[in-house]
């Protein structure tokens, strides 16, 4: 099969009905896989890994902190892509998927921020420091909030999809700019030399493998949530359309 | 296009002065700062470049919601959209009018307020330079935000929520220039970045604003 | 078989508690809204079909 | 410049309101759009004026030819009557605003701030803007709201003069304007909802 | 009266949330402060009580212009003035609704934002207490300002200009309580003054607001 | 409740617009105020409703008896039709909003957000508010703007019913409502400017 034909088959899922039917079948698998990975990864990390010689038991926070931080960024990426798809090809499912993903992104950002803050208290002696990475996460959080608020504020769904998509695009550019600005502004504490976990080869396998499982768990959970929530958004959208029609018919 | 600019300026002067009021807000925020953080002059000198930048930004922000909303409410925007002016030109001119009535007065007033906040001597030039370079970006970005929220009933606060994160890079580099200038440090890098942001925003954002406005007029 | 968390027990436990709480809340809210929309959609569809 | 519309369907707030609409508006002719409240007259006019895209169908001859006047007049209360008119004249490249002032008897009010006009005076100002656009097709949404009898007559004269110069007009109104115009009743074009089962890509 | 309160609260929730957005503005101002004055945590700790008070005040201020203007524009205010409710009750309820949708959330959110600005440990309680005592005054004074400017086309900035000087005493005593609290000093005197101002404002200003509103409706 | 007005003079923006006006509005009667644009009808109605003080003259029987409906309807776009009406019903202490919904055929629109109504639908909602005020004297400023023929008939029925229950109505309008009402032409009461020399204490 040629690539374009494959792509065309993919677009077929942009039909809401087809999307609902397919996800209905796929969802149980994702739920189970996500739960499995999360439970295995977290239990393994929490109960069966040694303490770090420098950070003591706080190192266990990494199993929540890193996956959620990764997801927080990547969910915004996914929203950027689906927003572009909506703007170019005008598939409703794509716009609705972006809408469905945003709250998941907020929660991930919150988890990263909360676990980071809790981790910061013993390690740096403060809940919060204006470190570049922390700061750029806070800004990301604001972008998420603005994006969701805009969706909620606009009544006409197509208008809302258009406007939020443009916001997502422009926002992405400015988010990257902020990242550089913040780096320039303050060099920061996060992962100073003492935390050699930064480099992959320095991470002991005992930490690394359960971390990978946790990351997989978070990814799977995200996929399950987004598919499910997109279905919900599709239904909500259709309810709105039907109700509008009902009224005009009246 | 010139007709539109002149009209907007005239309206700003008539309506109790878009001119005077942005300025007044800037003044008042600056004056309130000593009341809230206390009057020690060394502390004020340290924070003054930052506070002045923040004040200017908030003054800009506060005048954004009347940028397009008035024209929307009385139907002028509908009529402008059907007139022989491209919407890109309309939003650019609106941003320009906003800068002339808000940004420019702020730039000119900043040195005076610097005195009130004990801004160190070498900081004055840099404060003015950074504001002059940065405020056009604030106006253009603000116009984008105003275009996004124009259809909404009193989008005022939503507008702030959307625009403020977009202001972050401009603020960081702008305040950094002023701060470094005040303690006689090198300012080239942030100045260049600031100029880059402004140039980019002015060149590209009007297209986004026009697109968004078109959607909102539907 | 609780592992010994040493002096950082508070930090580690609260991090786990907060995160898991947030995740569970997210899932529950999603499911709850999903159910509601599903029910509402069938209701609206039935109403429309009945009324023609 | 003939405005040709065929098989037009339009939506409002994501709901189709009119469908299968077709008509031609020739120079020198006026067309009065009628229909009960909420049928979609305003939506139709906005679509033709290019403010919103149609759902389907063709609109020809609507590029930069239409002067639109909606429910609100786009008048700035802090500018005087002359300043308001001059602004629109400059935007549309008209030479003089005097004919517009004359046609709607605004000379006495010329120096007043528009915010201090009564409802009917404001409306007259809003209508006079049409004369400075120099556009051939007028598209008017309930133009005579708040106008007294003599002002309605002024308006009718202005429309007749416009038609006489080869212009045309599309007017949505509930009252009789005393114009010699065809009537377009949009009632029969009310959109029929699609099949419920037809749950397709565009949620309509 | 309860009908009016419920309606105003409902409107605040519907219109993209008067609730969330005042809060969001507070959050954003707080976040922007380090960007403008720099990230040193000792500096931030010194200015944080004052900055938080100032941020709360600005968040209140920003939501004032929709307090009466919306009702004015759509004619509701005319109708309320001819309804069997005294205008004094109307403005009091408007102020109350404003406090519930803006002041209260600010009080609750302040401690969280205190963390961001390195507020010293003992300061948290005092910050919350001073805000809880002071924000009702801000709402009542703001309602007076809104009543003064309600007829004006976009009086937004003029409103700020009029209201900010009126906010000065509240700000001084409120910030003083928070500042002294943060460095564990005695706070009785400013606290009493703050309480006095609030009590006086709540008791007397509604009459002034109603009088002014009556003039504006003519 | 009879509304009695004698020797009334009113100002607008500091300029006297009408003077020496007198009339009585008895229960069961309607009075239609006529006059060209800008003569001062809106100002008269606002004065009678108590929104602005008269320059001189007496108004009797206007205390808490008047339900005023001006150019704008006081409708909140984010509330539904029912919520809007219920609010006013509670403010005025009315028991039920059902009669109001029925009178203006709003039952089908009851759950809609008012912001999504068409111009005429909004106006119907604005007029239905009169029914929940329970006030005997209706004071209406161009009530039929944007209404189609059947809605104008609904409105006329509502006024007739109100008159039948001993209410009264003062209506400023330019069009014929098909009501059996006296006409009050305010044209002759146009204020004559005072002598220029007469530069007295109140700058009028
Ligand atoms: C609110 C505070 C914090 C935020 C928002 C935050 C954010 C982040 C982000 C965005 C990553 C990036 C993940 C990646 O790129 O791989 C990360 C990784 C990490 N963070 Fe934090 N962090 C915070 C606090 C902390 C603290 C206090 C510590 C420990 C002292 C910490 C330790 C780490 C470690 C060890 C990694 C993994 C590095 C890697 O494998 O790349 N973080 N954090
Ligand atoms: N945002 C919206 N969402 C959903 N429906 C809407 C929206 N705006 C308007 N409508 C509905 O669309 C229909 C068409 O409205 P439109 O304003 O075009 O009617 P109209 O013919 O101009 O009526 P009128 O004579 O009352 O002015 C109406 O039934 C209206 O209720
Ligand atoms: N603020 C103001 N300052 C000065 N003059 C004003 C002001 N507002 C209105 N006027 C003038 O007062 C007069 C009376 O206005 P009013 O609105 O009462 O007229 P109206 O009879 O209701 O007219 P219409 O039929 O057009 O609604 C008008 O000539 C108007 O121009
Ligand atoms: Mg209409
Ligand atoms: Mg009038």
UniProtKB/TrEMBL annotation, chain A:
Residues 17-190 form the Cytochrome c assembly protein domain. Keywords: Cell inner membrane, Cell membrane, Cytochrome c-type biogenesis, Membrane, Transmembrane, Transmembrane helix, Transport. It is found in: Cell inner membrane; Membrane. The keyword Lyase does not apply. PANTHER family: CYTOCHROME B_B6 PROTEIN-RELATED, HEME EXPORTER PROTEIN C. Required for the export of heme to the periplasm for the biogenesis of c-type cytochromes. This is Heme exporter protein C. The gene is ccmC.
From TrEMBL, chains B, E:
The keyword Cell inner membrane applies. The chain crosses the membrane at residues 12-37, 43-64, 96-117, 123-150, 157-178, 190-213. NCBIfam families: ccmB. It is found in: Cell inner membrane. Belongs to the CcmB/CycW/HelB family. It comes from Sedimentitalea xiamensis. PANTHER family: CYTOCHROME C BIOGENESIS B-RELATED, HEME EXPORTER PROTEIN B. It holds the Pfam family CcmB. Keywords: Cell inner membrane, Cell membrane, Cytochrome c-type biogenesis, Membrane, Transmembrane, Transmembrane helix, Transport. Required for the export of heme to the periplasm for the biogenesis of c-type cytochromes. This is Heme exporter protein B. It is a multi-pass membrane protein.
From TrEMBL, chain C:
The chain crosses the membrane at residues 12-32. It is a single-pass membrane protein. Its main location: membrane. Keywords: Cell inner membrane, Cell membrane, Cytochrome c-type biogenesis, Membrane, Transmembrane, Transmembrane helix, Transport. It is found in: Cell inner membrane. Belongs to the CcmD/CycX/HelD family. Required for the export of heme to the periplasm for the biogenesis of c-type cytochromes. This is Heme exporter protein D.
TrEMBL record, chains D, F:
SMART domains: AAA. Keywords: ATP-binding, Cytochrome c-type biogenesis, Membrane, Nucleotide-binding, Translocase, Transport. The keyword NAD does not apply. Residues 3-204 form the ABC transporter domain. One of its GO terms (molecular function) is ATP binding. PANTHER family: ABC TRANSPORTER I FAMILY MEMBER 1. NCBIfam families: ccmA (TIGR01189). This is Heme ABC exporter ATP-binding protein CcmA. It comes from Sedimentitalea xiamensis.
